């Protein structure tokens, strides 16, 4: 079995460990690094997976999954560079960081795969996009797709699209949470108790998402089915259009794309 080390056991790192275990991976084939001893003890108790330091992870693992925050990548690469073997697969879950950053800092020929997951990974419903670096072979991509498939769906995209993917699906859950929050507030404004408004909106969101995923019907068609002539829905849609909600959403996603690209440029060298 492939030995996997998750470097950085935050929410995404923990979710991946949990998903791999649920998919049948043995705890003996997994390990993680984490800077806080209390967190290490908590995760080891919860999952039976051992915590190690970075040198031990590099020595033992066939796959290194980098799940630290982008601003923490430089010191980690300093630790990895003198220790990583060129045949070790490095999988980056770091938003905005290109494969060429890892390839520049790690030994020549190191295969790197860039992944953009999202937070529904914690419930096994992630949307992850994968892209291979210069030295990543088809079998490397297939292995990463298998690993990420244990915590949701996976698509393969050119790396040139990863900043856009980050803006769409990486940050995407936050947009839905924001919309649900606003709709609950609207329910309260209309006199509905908060708990009832939350139940109404959340179940409506779950039902709508299921129809989108499982029905094979375009969202425009689904929206039109709810929009009767001179009815309540068309009046609401008119207000959304009048306030430029569609344009604002598009601009927001463009801003997220630009920030993802900026994170990558912060690590460029002349």
UniProtKB/TrEMBL annotation:
It is an enzyme of class 1 (oxidoreductase). Its main location: cytoplasm. It is found in: Cytoplasm. NADP(+) binds at residues 67-70. Residues 3-96 form the Pyrroline-5-carboxylate reductase catalytic N-terminal domain. One of its GO terms (biological process) is L-proline biosynthetic process. SUPFAM superfamilies: 6-phosphogluconate dehydrogenase C-terminal domain-like, NAD(P)-binding Rossmann-fold domains. Catalyzes the reduction of 1-pyrroline-5-carboxylate (PCA) to L-proline. This is Pyrroline-5-carboxylate reductase. The gene is proC.
């Amino acid at each position: 079995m492939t030995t996997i080390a998750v470097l950085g056991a935050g929410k995404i790192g923990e979710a991946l460990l949990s998903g791999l275990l649920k998919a049948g991976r043995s705890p003996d084939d997994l390990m993680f690094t984490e800077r806080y001893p209390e967190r290490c003890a908590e995760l080891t108790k919860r999952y039976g997976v051992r915590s190690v330091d970075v040198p031990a992870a590099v020595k033992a693992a066939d796959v290194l999954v980098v799940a630290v925050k982008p601003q923490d990548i430089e010191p980690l690469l300093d630790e990895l560079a003198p220790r990583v073997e060129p045949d070790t697969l490095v999988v980056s879950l770091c938003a905005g960081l290109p494969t060429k950053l890892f390839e520049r800092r790690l030994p020549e020929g190191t295969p790197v795969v860039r992944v953009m997951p999202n937070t529904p990974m914690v419930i096994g419903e992630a949307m992850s996009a994968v892209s291979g670096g210069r030295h990543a072979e088809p079998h490397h991509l297939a292995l990463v797709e298998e690993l990420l498939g244990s915590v949701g769906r996976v698509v393969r995209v050119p790396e040139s699209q990863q900043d856009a993917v980050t803006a769409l699906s990486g940050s995407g859950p936050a947009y839905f949470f924001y919309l649900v929050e606003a709709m609950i507030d609207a329910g309260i404004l209309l006199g509905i108790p908060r708990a009832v408004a939350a139940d109404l909106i959340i179940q409506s969101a779950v039902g709508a998402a299921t129809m989108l995923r499982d029905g094979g019907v375009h969202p425009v068609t689904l929206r039109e089915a709810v929009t009767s002539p001179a009815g309540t829905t068309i009046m609401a849609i008119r207000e959304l259009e009048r306030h430029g909600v569609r344009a604002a959403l598009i601009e927001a996603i463009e801003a997220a794309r630009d920030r993802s690209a900026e994170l990558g440029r912060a690590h460029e060298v002349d």
